[in-house]
Amino acid sequence: MNIYTQCCGILLLLIVLWFYGNQKRLHLNTGEAFLRTLLVGLSSIILDALSIVVICNMEHLSEFFVKAVCKTYLASLVILALCAVHYICTDIYTKKVEYRKAFYYNLVIAVIAIAVIYISPIYIHCEKGGTEVYTYGVSVMTAYAAALINLVINTILLIWKKSVIRPSRRKAMLFWMLIWIGAAVIQFFNNEILLVGFGEALGIMILYIKLENPEVNLDRQTGLFNQTALTRYMRQLSNREKHFSLVLMVLEYSFYKNISQESETAAEMEMINYIFTVPGTMAFKTAGDEIMLLYENEATAEEGLRILRKRFERGWGKDESVFKRPFWIYLPDSAVLKDVKDITQLIKHARQNSKELIDNGFLQIDKELADEMYRTRDMEQVIFNAIERNWITVYYQPIYSTKENKITSAEALVRITNEEGKVVPPYDFVWVAEKNGMMLRLGEIIFDKVCEFIRDAKPEQYGIQYIEVNLSTIQCAHELFAENCIASMEKYGVRPNFINLEITETAAIGAKNVVLSNMQKLIDYGVSFSLDDFGTGESNLNYIAEMPVAIVKFDRTMINSYFENGKAKYVMDAAMHMIHGMNLEIVAEGIETKEQFEVMKSLGISYIQGYYFSRPIPEQAFIEYIRDYKEE
Prior knowledge:
Blueprint: H1 4-21, H2 29-56, H3 63-92, H4 96-119, E1 123-126, E2 133-136, H5 138-160, H6 167-189, H7 196-212, E3 225-226, H8 227-239, E4 245-256, H9 261-277, E5 282-287, E6 290-295, H10 298-311, E7 322-331, H11 343-353, H12 355-360, E8 362-364, H13 367-389, E9 392-401, E10 406-417, E11 423-424, H14 426-436, H15 438-457, E12 466-470, H16 473-476, H17 481-492, E13 499-504, H18 505-510, H19 512-525, E14 528-534, H20 541-546, E15 551-554, H21 556-564, H22 566-581, E16 585-588, H23 594-602, E17 607-609, H24 619-631
Parallel strand pairs: 3-5, 7-8, 10-12, 12-13, 13-14, 14-15, 15-16, 16-17
Antiparallel strand pairs: 1-2, 4-6, 4-7, 5-6, 9-10, 9-17, 10-11
Helix pairs in contact: 1-2, 1-7, 2-3, 2-7, 3-4, 3-5, 4-5, 5-6, 6-7, 11-13, 13-14, 13-15, 14-15, 15-17, 17-19, 21-22
């Protein structure tokens, strides 16, 4: 009786089952499908060995019983092939409708095949001593055909749907199929070589090693689940249309009372072990000192959060001598996410934009914050497209000189266009570009376009003496900013005195030494500077004294306050007196009516800018405006 290969297969699968059953694991769909395949595969090999045993002893057993055992083994092969379909479909199809449709086709094949196996005749071949044992007949052919059909379907699915399966998973599954099919083909043409059972076991063991070993989902240092496990589990919950709650615990702050490294490590393990005891908590080590806690409903999450926050009021370790003060970020309902993969970006956005987290160490993410993150992300894409596809234009707003009674300059203002061809308002994209660093590239493009406009349109022939160009905070702080500006002016042959760069108080605060160095290089080259938006921010007159600017621009808010608030008049009068005392010019922004214009002119304001003269307009419209204005 030759059942050595079957015994080896049984031993392999028992080892896999022992390791798999004794390791901490997530309840993932693929894991459950693998466990089902493992158990059916083990049962099939046991039935294979049992069928050999009963055949070798059939003189002592009833014929019906022997054939029933043999047919049950054949049916188990079909069921195992169906489990393989289930395993692969679970990985390929995330939607229930798609999965059921693909699985049910194979289920029908399996049911029909099993029915045929049990009602069809089967014949047994057994040489004396059991040295050559096998079965044949319609039942056997049906089992082979059905199993082979399912295996071929599996192989086709793996090749056809390769775009939705990670390459490593697809290769392992294909290898599994090839081993199984190869063993079946060898046994079909050589009945005495019983390889199918061992092929099954070998393939399942490969799946375990390459794909389903629970250890790949664990953080080795802490024993918590890792980031990969979190992503897979959240995706599974989302595919099942189940909402969940998340708590991010950021352990940035800790302090100790003269303890050793060993005591600190023990305290950290105590903390982790405590997290395991909190009801309903699934813990994941995501990055650095961050631990993500997942709960399947909001009520459980709030109770878990309450328990943990209370426990962290005390220390950890021996004598509670290790103190940690986490930041807590709480997402009550995953329904605010369009896609679970957005959670990392949402948390990053929350940490960067929420003063609440800085003030008290706790932030609750709501739909409003999530929507803000999505708007920011969408706008980042708009900006990126505008840069890549050259959908950036420069508008110009005329500036009137009260001394010369004519338009003598203009402010260059950036505009970008979206995919629908609509102009995006600056207040929708400028702050996003400032935050994500795209403004550096935008600023370079704008400055190039202004220089190109000056060269090609020659606005000086219409009385324009200089063009003002806004600078972002990130541009001012860039070490090569001055060199890049000079290179652009030389490229387009623009005289430096035709450029006035507008710098804000925020830029002056940010990286003062670098900003002042850049300014001095450009001033030495011949460029002048304005202090933009005076009247917003801190509005400290010290900046005017320290910054080498020639012009100060009063913000629209300050101008409006002058006309609406009696006290504001005294503030603005004092500011004008001090600025004029430093021999600096003043631009009043946001002038919209003749009354405002006359008052500003009477106060000795040098330049007037606003809708009273013109809105910001495209290049050609601006040229036509200043040409017509000059002729008037």
